[in-house]
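Researcher: Let's try something more involved. This one mixes different molecule types, so please make sure each is placed in the same coordinate frame as the others.
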Amino acid sequence: MWARLSCRGEGMNRKRLIAGNWKMNGSVVANEALVRAVIAGMEGVNCRVAVCVPAPYLAQVQQLRAGSSLELGAQDVSAHAQGAYTGEVSAAMLREFGTRYAIVGHSERRQYHAESDAMVADKAKAALAEGITPIVCVGETLAEREGSRTEEVVKRQLAAVIHVNGHCISEIVVAYEPVWAIGTGKTATPEQAQQVHAVLRAQLRAASTRDSRIAILYGGSMNAANAASLLAQPDIDGGLIGGASLKAADFLQIIAAADQAGATP
Ligand code: PEP
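Model: All components are placed in one shared frame. Result:
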């Protein structure tokens, strides 16, 4: 079954990835100022930087980023290739705007749009088939953490993606985003995050047929003050940044921390 799966991703390298998730924020005027400031400030850094923007702004940011190393991402993608799916955006459409990444399974989509593990896995598959790298989000709620279920939950969420995508998982990026840390100002401690990243790393190693290191990002109130200590952990390869990606100065400080952390092991 796996041999028939199509994944034409560009693949990642050992460079760290800092991806901004703008969520449902922005305007034509604000985007231009933000993107120009980020591009100006990231000149010469040796890490990947992306912004995952609302779908209506993909074309605008595609133009703004032209000639720079800033990469473009979407915040979701349809599991379907085309057809009667009102409101959805296909991977092929995203690709037409130079989109490199698509976030799938963000906890806000799991929570407000009832996205199941299976649906997230299908979205990852649709992205991979178009050469878009899915940033697969996994993470536990506070109740699940307090019930000592963190490992069980993140492994279940990732297992669904592995099951559907087989050997193509070597092309994905994973983001560990504890739900209780998203937009709350509460960050997992570097040790808490590392513990979960190590679990995910082991699961990916066991499942991946290729000898590549799959990037695992941390997300959840990452900011200028805590980025360096999180990125110093051996299994944290980068960050998925919500609130702090909306202010160029804050986002650039996180990018600088990733640059200073150097390549992943
Ligand atoms: C996110 O929404 O992916 C996120 C990490 O948000 P924040 O950084 O605001 O917690």
